[in-house]
Every structure is written in structure tokens, then in C-alpha cells.
Design a protein that fits this description.
The chain is α/β, with parallel strands linked by helices. It contains ten helices and 15 strands. The structure holds nicotinamide-adenine-dinucleotide.
């Protein structure tokens, strides 16, 4: 079975997904590409051998020659496009976040529950990253004992001027919220958000430092620093009662020179998480063929957005904010 994929959004992430689907995923074919900017769609289609989907996203989603939909357009478009895919009863891999606002995530959940079938996978690709997978395996094997604390660092070289502290919480941190929920198998109950004193406190994109407490009493701290200057750098250390596990980013070489050894940081997330994107997309295609969902669900997408909303409130109020989810619908509950 070959799954014919329709891609919506051919920007930085969409072009990356297009290359992965077209060249690295057995069982998948990139069928058509569309973008609000036709030149981008054409460039990606030419590079990958796909066709340009005429008629815009809705036509691509409904097309009889498209079996599954990959959404990589801006955050604000995700919920409505995912709802279109559910209405067409097509599996959809939606880039994170599922939606910037939790009521929109709930609309997706409601539609999926009504469809009676899990169709949505959210692009929280860190669940497929070898370093996080090994960390989780060490935890599950009991190597470090009961988990107590998870230290998370998310650093970018530089963010655009519109990327403020609120966006650091709603756009960057959801990766951290999701991976910590997945790693600890627990929900967040409270979040506090702090900002360090900087030379220019009004500067958008100043770092945010979050402290969260889970339902099992674990503490998670998350630094999001989108203007870290030195490189793209995601770190994590999971501390248990008997030991700790730290992430190692992939390193291919190390230069020894002048009494120093040097490794290189990537410019952005694509090299750091290349294997995670590939494994995520392969798992998505395999899950369609097998009829068994994989990866983060619409519920996981909702929870990440809900924690981000609580984080934005905590940033504004300067006080601890409670995360208050609705009751989890049955299809998302773990099997008894
Ligand atoms: N998983 C990850 O690690 C990761 C990393 C970066 C970005 N993202 C997510 O991927 C998505 C895309 O981010 P990006 O960095 O590629 O942005 P981008 O701006 O480079 O690309 C977005 C593209 O979508 C197009 N577009 C806008 N509205 C559209 C619409 N209604 N229909 C079709 N196309 C439309 C734009 O013309 C643009 O080409 C965002 O939701 C972002 O949060 C995820």
C-alpha cells in the first residue's frame, strides 16, 4: 500500500517534510503540495516530483488522489484544516501546535470523537528522537529510580522581532510541555513563569523560565531562550532518586586544535531533529497502513496548548496558575 500525501504549507517546515516524505519514507508518496504563495508550492513540487494542488488546501484535502494530509502552514490555520481532514475522514499529521487556543483544540477533539476514529497525529516529533527515546527507556527500566525533576532548555540563535515572551510560551515551549508529559507519564497541575532582568526589559524575546509541578509531585523547569545567539541547543536532564539521564545531541565530528576540542551547534532545529522528523513521519505512514494511531494525539495537542495558556496567564499575573483540563474523552484514555 502506498499512502499518497497532500502537503499544505511549503515554507521551512513544509519543504523539510516534503523532502522527507519524497525521499526517506517507504510506503509514502508526496502527491500534491499547496501553499498560499504559489511560487513556494511550485518550488517544492518541482524539487520532489509532486504536483501543485490546484484549488487550495480544501481541494487538496478532498482530492480523491490524496489519502492523508500533512499540515505545515502557520499555527492559526491548523485547527480548521485539521477539521477539514477529519470531515473527509483522512488521517492528518498536523504540525504543532494543534491550535494556539484550547477551545479550537476541543473543536478538533469533538470532531474526532464524532468521527469515531483517531485520525489526528500532532507533530510533537521529539517523542521519536533517539535521545529522548533512550531517556524514557532508562526510566521505564527503573535505572534511575523514581523521577523527581526534569530540567529542560530550549535555545534558538535568534528570533524574529515579533517573537515575544508570550510566543516563546505558546510556540516554542509546547515541545517541552509535550515531551515532559510523555516522559513522566503525568499531567501538569501548576505553572509559574519568570523572566530574568535584562539590559532592556521591554525587548521582545527575552528569556522565559518556567517551573511546573505534575500531578505526581515532580518538578519540571523549562528555559526558553529564543535569542541565545550561540546556536540551536536543546538540552534535558531527567533526575531520579538513583541517578540521572542527560540528552546528547547528535554530533558527527569533533575538531581538536590548539589545546581545545570543538563541536558545532546547528543553526536551527532541522539538523538536530532530522532523525526525529524521519521516524515521526515513518511512524505516521506505518500507522495509517496498520490502522493503529501513533505519536501525539489531539488530546496531547490540547494539553500542550492548555499548559501554554496557563503559562501566558502566569506570565501576565506573576503568580502560580492552575492547569484545568476538561474530562478526557474515552477514545484518548489509556487501555485498561
Ligand atoms: N515540529 C517542529 O519542530 C517545528 C519547527 C518549526 C515550525 N513548526 C511549525 O510548522 C508550521 C510552519 O512553520 P514554518 O517555520 O515552516 O513557517 P513558514 O512561514 O516558513 O511556512 C508557512 C507556509 O505556509 C504558507 N501558508 C500560510 N497560510 C496558508 C494557508 N492557509 N494554506 C496553505 N499555506 C499557507 C505560507 O505561505 C508559508 O509558505 C508552524 O505551525 C510551526 O509552528 C514546527
Amino acid at each position: 500500500m502506498t499512502v499518497r500525501v497532500g502537503l499544505i504549507g511549503a515554507g521551512i517546515m513544509g519543504a523539510d517534510h516534503a523532502r522527507i516524505i519524497a525521499t526517506q519514507i517507504p510506503g509514502a508518496r508526496l502527491q500534491s503540495v499547496c501553499d498560499a504563495d504559489p511560487a513556494r508550492a511550485r518550488a517544492v513540487a518541482e524539487e520532489t516530483g509532486a504536483s501543485v494542488g490546484p484549488g487550495g488546501p480544501a481541494a487538496v484535502i478532498r482530492s480523491a488522489s490524496v489519502d492523508a494530509v500533512l499540515i505545515a502552514s502557520p499555527d492559526s490555520t491548523h485547527a480548521d484544516l485539521t477539521l477539514e481532514a477529519i470531515a473527509a475522514r483522512k488521517p492528518v499529521l498536523c504540525e504543532k501546535p494543534l491550535a494556539p487556543a484550547s477551545p479550537d483544540c476541543l473543536r478538533v477533539i469533538g470532531a474526532e470523537v464524532k468521527a469515531g476514529k483517531r485520525l489526528v497525529q500532532v507533530g510533537f516529533m521529539r517523542r521519536f528522537d533517539p535521545a529522548y527515546v533512550e531517556m524514557k527507556a532508562a526510566l521505564v527500566r527503573g535505572m534511575i529510580g523514581r523521577p523527581l525533576m526534569f530540567h529542560c532548555f530550549h535555545r534558538n540563535v535568534a528570533a524574529p522581532s515579533f517573537f515575544d515572551s508570550k510566543m516563546a510560551i505558546t510556540n516554542s515551549a509546547p515541545h517541552e510541555f509535550d515531551i515532559a508529559r510523555w516522559m513522566l507519564d503525568a499531567e501538569f497541575e501548576h505553572i509559574d513563569v519568570f523572566r530574568p532582568q535584562t539590559d532592556d526589559p521591554a525587548r521582545p524575546g527575552a528569556p522565559v523560565f518556567m517551573v511546573l509541578r505534575t500531578s505526581a509531585g515532580q518538578l519540571v523547569n523549562i528555559e526558553v531562550n529564543v535569542n541565545a545567539a550561540y546556536g540551536y541547543d536543546v538540552r534535558g536532564e531527567l533526575v531520579g532518586e538513583k541517578g540521572s539521564v542527560s540528552l546528547r545531541a547528535p554530533v558527527n565530528s569533533e575538531v581538536s586544535l590548539n589545546l581545545a576540542s570543538t563541536t558545532v551547534y546547528p543553526q536551527d532545529w532541522r539538523p538536530r531533529f532530522a532523525e526525529a522528523y524521519r521516524r515521526q513521519n515513518q511512524a505516521w505512514i506505518n500507522s495509517i497502513a496498520a490502522g493503529r494511531p501513533a505519536g501525539a494525539s489531539a488530546w496531547d495537542g490540547y494539553m500542550a496548548t492548555l499548559v501554554a495558556e496557563a503559562g501566558v496567564s502566569a506570565l501576565a499575573s506573576g503568580s502560580s496558575t492552575t492547569v484545568k483540563p476538561v474530562a478526557m474523552p474515552q477514545p484518548y484514555q489509556p487501555a485498561a
